[in-house]
Amino acid sequence: MRTTILFLLTVVALVAGAMTVVASPKLRAETAIRPTPSPLLVIETTPAPTATPTALPTATPTPVSTPNGTVTFSVPVYKQVMNLDCETAALQMGLAGLGHYYTQQQLFAYEQPDTRPPVISYLANGQKIVVHWGDPYTNFVGDVNGADLTPTGYGIYYPLIISIAQSHGAANAYGHENFTAAEIYAALSAGHPVVAWTETGWERPYVGYWTAWDGKKIKYSLVEHTVTLSGVSATQVRVNDPWHSGSQYWFSKAAFEASWADFNNMAVVLQ
After folding, report:
1. How much is the pTM?
2. Tens place of pLDDT for every residue, the chain, 271 residues?
3. Distance between CA atoms of 87 and 80, rounded to whole angstroms?
4. Contact indicator for 84, 144 with CB cutoff of 8 Å
């Protein structure tokens, strides 16, 4: 009798244990459908600057005006990557302010450098002068990685800069010599970057004329420089300067106009 009772108790324990195992969540069949995994690698790239003109419209930078009449707009600061190519760096900054991004090498490829050396002479006081050299109205004159005071390189003037600007996003760019200061300040107040010819470090050196190979008279300074203007106030202009590491600063209108006059008030308005 005792044996029968023990046998029945053992059977009951085994059945209860089996029911517990079946009910355990660890052994339930997995019925949920797994979601499809997302890609393991997503590559995002920033489009590289291209020398091929695009049909994208030019956006005028939004000028910000303060109650005292100061106007500024966004133009990035870039340094000149070739020793004497401030003009291309200034153009690069102005185009970037309009939303068109190119490297300086891509833009310089259109400047047709004339690398013939200059004919040098001296005045009675020992001042070095250039007698004959290339035509910066048609070509970049000299070695772009040369030296200006030697001189082995010089620069380029407004006509080709306009042409490059127009074919690289700023279709309505215009420029010439003999701008008035009022015209430049009005363009800045409207949010248009201005490329202006001045002197490096705002020095006031000897200014003279050489005769180009094509016979044209060229007004020059051996510290010729180019900056991009990105703002204006009652007494100052904001300068994006590609010299050295590149900088942005406010500069006296009177001092700007004196240096700018050495290059016949030459400028290019980008729009």
Report:
1. 0.79
2. 444 444 444 444 444 443 333 333 332 333 333 233 332 222 222 234 444 444 455 677 888 988 889 999 999 999 999 999 999 999 999 999 999 999 999 999 999 999 999 999 999 999 999 999 999 999 999 999 999 999 999 999 999 999 999 999 999 999 999 999 999 999 999 999 999 999 999 999 999 999 999 999 999 999 999 999 999 999 999 999 999 999 999 999 999 999 999 999 999 999 9
3. 9
4. yes
